[in-house]
Amino acid sequence: QVQLVESGGGLVQAGGPLRLSCAASGRTFSTYAMGWFRQAPGKAREFVAAISWNGGGSYYADSVKGRFTISRDNAKNPVYLQMHSLKPEGTAVYYCAADLHRSSELATQEHKYDDWGQGTQVTVSS
Predict the structure, then answer these.
(1) What does 32-70 look like in DSSP terms, one character per residue?
(2) What is the pLDDT of residue 40?
């Protein structure tokens, strides 16, 4: 089991940047893939980005490709989501999640992730 704590959320103007962090504890961090999801008010939670256990592979939702970057520091344990050119529709609670199965492909579906953080609110003003 992995415990995850997100931070870095807040209020940002449209077009601005923001970096989210997710601190992990429990299982050895470098042994599992990580993902970011978000849930806007009144909508289902959706996939944002994922990164492989060693950081060598990543995958993004089309809606954020080219604007968001996921990265990880296996020496210090956090996973990051650097967001640029934020849009008002990016207002959501952002969650990090751990995929403990070490599958060959990065997962985009919620049910493939085992442990979740509590989320951090990002509000993008227009």
Answers:
(1) SEEEEEEE-TTS--EEEEEE-TTSS-EEE-TTTTTTEEE
(2) 97
